[in-house]
């Protein structure tokens, strides 16, 4: 029996909405306060794939990533990373993964090298080899040597995000969780990150779970894509398979956004709401 890199089995996650006073109400006392983030999600990600998750804010994308990274626990169902249950064996899962998020946190007074060295020590990486690795990754992502030692607070939002991506790759995870990793990057920087994702997948046998709002990015990078809408899987297929769900208009080939509109009745902008 083949082991999947990532398995979701009937996963459900519900949050409690705050009342006007800012306090959380127990779910059993006020069912109307339930916010269902994910509803009975079942899907598998094969080893070596770049698996995309598309959907507007509020569709459950980031919740999905946080569940895999053990930052949240499912209310029901099971999630397994290379056979390890995220609830029963979280430490084994953490050794296999790393995460890059759109809101990555840093010590802003520290330099990229100091931030990455701090991460390397947390993961128990040898100092000498870690320094060589982090310099190579940052160079590959298009950061100049002169920026390696300057405080993060003096760097642009795009440059900081590249450092976040470098930190995610530093441990050579077998499952890399990318939560909108190219948000805020200029087109050239975005291409640098996308090329590095492909390179890592091909040279390090890495599996990638990617959430993004960028339809072109998903089309270029992803082997398979799940479209989420209101916490449910609206469609799941390879990119060309998803496009085949929508008839062409005026001879133009349907895009992934066309698929989303056809399945949900909304554009991404119309569906946009806080996560």
Provide an overview of this structure.
The chain is built from 10 helices and 10 strands. The chain is of the alpha/beta class and 275 residues long. It has a single domain, classed as P-loop containing nucleotide triphosphate hydrolases (Rossmann fold, 3-Layer(aba) Sandwich), CATH 3.40.50.300. The strands form 2 sheets. It has a 6-stranded mixed β-sheet, with helices on both faces. A 4-stranded antiparallel β-sheet has the order 2-1-4-5, covered by helices on one side. Helix 6 (187-204) links the parallel strand 7 and strand 8. Helix 3 (112-122) crosses helix 4 and helix 4 (127-140) crosses helix 5 (157-170). Residues 268-275 have low confidence and may be disordered.
């Amino acid at each position: 029996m083949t082991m999947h890199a990532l398995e979701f089995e009937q996963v459900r996650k519900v949050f409690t909405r705050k009342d006007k006073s800012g306090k959380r109400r127990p779910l059993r006392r006020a069912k109307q306060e339930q916010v269902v983030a994910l509803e009975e999600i079942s899907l598998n990600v094969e080893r070596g794939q770049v698996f995309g998750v598309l959907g507007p804010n509020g569709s459950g994308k980031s919740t999905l990533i946080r569940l895999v990274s053990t930052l949240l626990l499912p209310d029901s169902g099971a999630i397994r990373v290379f056979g390890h249950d995220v609830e029963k064996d979280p430490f084994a899962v953490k050794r296999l993964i790393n995460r890059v998020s759109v809101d990555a946190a840093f010590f802003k007074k520290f330099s990229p090298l100091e931030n990455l060295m701090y991460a390397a020590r947390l993961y128990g990486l040898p100092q000498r080899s870690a320094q060589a690795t982090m310099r190579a990754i940052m160079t590959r992502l298009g950061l100049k040597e002169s920026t390696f030692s300057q405080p993060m607070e003096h760097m642009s939002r795009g440059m900081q995000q590249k450092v976040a991506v470098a930190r995610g790759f530093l441990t050579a995870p077998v499952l890399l969780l990318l939560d909108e990793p190219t948000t805020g990057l200029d087109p050239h920087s975005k291409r640098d990150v996308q090329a590095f994702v492909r390179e890592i997948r091909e040279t390090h046998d890495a599996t990638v779970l990617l959430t993004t709002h960028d339809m072109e990015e998903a089309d270029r990078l992803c082997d398979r894509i799940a479209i989420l809408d209101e916490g449910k899987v609206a469609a799941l297929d390879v990119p060309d398979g998803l496009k085949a769900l929508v008839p062409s208009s005026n001879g133009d080939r349907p895009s992934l956004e066309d698929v989303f509109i056809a399945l949900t009745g909304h554009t991404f902008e119309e569906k946009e709401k806080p996560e």
